[in-house]
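From the methods appendix. Each design record in this collection lists the tokenized structure first, followed by the designed amino acid sequence. Records were kept in a plain field format so they could be parsed without special tools. The example shown here is representative of the layout used throughout.

RECORD:
FOLD TOKENS (238 positions):
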């Protein structure tokens, strides 16, 4: 039987003597809104910021090390705190999904003996998690229908190879590209437009806004001589 584990920075927790304790608490992302009281009006008026807040994911673990809890603490800290930015996080209890996470705070191990103790590992996670199948790059045929399998509008990575004026339509959204030189990469998550080698910005070729792929079926078509590849990034609420 495979023990529960999480993987972060391409390393697994059970390689560091960490084992999940019973009674894990899972918190979902929350909608960002505020209840406002208006004089003369009963109840509240809800003001929405039209976004989701990041959430906390806490792994309650036991840690065991033959070489001693002090050395285990050092090894775990040097693993989890070696890069404080946002990284992929997966865990065995939620297969098929990838979170975007960063360590929230430091580590504090409760020492229960010379070789073992308990620790809470706190992650801050982005409010959406990605379906693994939506992380693969798809070669798209002109006129093909692409189905967003998530529950949120997807922000894809689009690679277009070709030159000249190109109009790419995804569902009801149109990308208007002009005077493309060999190709362009559109990242709808970071809202960047670059050359195929990623070295030059190409915003001067884009005459429309970045957009998303709505949930459900979306027909994809384009004008001009080009090939299109899409990494769809299907997502659900974390």
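DESIGN:
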């Amino acid at each position: 039987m495979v023990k529960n584990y999480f993987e972060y920075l391409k390393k697994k927790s059970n390689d560091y003597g960490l084992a999940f304790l019973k009674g894990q608490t899972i918190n979902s992302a929350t909608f960002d809104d505020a209840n406002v009281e208006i004089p003369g009006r009963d109840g509240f008026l809800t003001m929405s910021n039209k976004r989701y807040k990041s959430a906390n994911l806490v792994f309650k673990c036991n840690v065991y090390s033959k070489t001693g809890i002090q050395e285990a603490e050092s090894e775990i800290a040097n693993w989890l705190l070696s890069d404080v930015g946002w990284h992929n996080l997966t865990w065995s209890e939620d297969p098929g999904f990838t979170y975007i996470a960063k360590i929230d705070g430091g580590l504090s191990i409760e020492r229960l003996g010379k070789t073992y103790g308990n620790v809470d590992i706190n992650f801050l996670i982005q409010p959406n998690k990605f379906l693994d199948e939506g992380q693969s790059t798809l070669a798209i045929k002109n006129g093909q229908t692409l189905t967003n399998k998530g529950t949120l509008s997807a922000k894809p990575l689009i690679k277009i190879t070709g030159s000249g004026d190109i109009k790419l339509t995804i569902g009801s959204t149109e990308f208007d590209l002009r005077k493309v030189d060999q190709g362009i990469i559109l990242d709808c998550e970071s809202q960047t437009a670059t050359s195929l080698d990623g070295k030059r910005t190409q915003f001067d070729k884009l005459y429309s806004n970045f957009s998303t792929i709505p949930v459900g079926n979306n027909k994809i078509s384009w004008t001009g001589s080009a090939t299109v590849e899409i990494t769809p990034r299907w997502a659900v609420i974390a």
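APPENDIX NOTE: The chain has one helix and 21 strands.
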